[in-house]
Fold this protein.
Amino acid sequence: MRDFVAWASLRERSRAFLTPWEPTWPSDDLTRGSFRYRVRRHAEEMARDEAYSFFVFREADDVLVGGLTLGHVRRGVSQAATLGYWMGEPYAGKGYMSRAVRAALDYAFSRQRLHRVEAACLPSNAASIRLLERNGFHQEGFARAYLNINGQWRDHLLFARLDSDPSPARRPL
């Protein structure tokens, strides 16, 4: 619960920035009870090897800047997960999420031994497309009415990165 205030504050300050790209927020989304439930659910998903959720902190001062999840983990013949992420508006475009995605991919491929990490984003989200491409994801397709975003079924671009794909050269921040 120690991160609740920072999380709720960042999400509230970034609400207008985030809502075009996210599912509709429940009315109690930023409450302590909702946060407690979210933390418990994430811990249970990790224990069951279903999802791995992380907050993203700025290294210099340990300030919360966003979060990401390796969700919908599929084992067996797939060995895959789906990457999702959000960034607080004050920290967007500064390279924090790119570093976090690189770390998440290393965790997915090295520690979790996944073969494939997938991601989807709205065709209008140029920043997300750049983030994925800069981190070695390849666009693989287009899904009509794929996810319900901000109250509407929206088309998405589908991306993936394989454990065998070469790591892209790191760009200076």
Observations:
- The two ends are 32 Å apart (CA to CA).
- The chain has one domain: 4-162.
- Residues 32-47 form the longest helix (16 residues).
- The helical segments are 4-13, 15-18, 32-47, 96-111, 126-134.
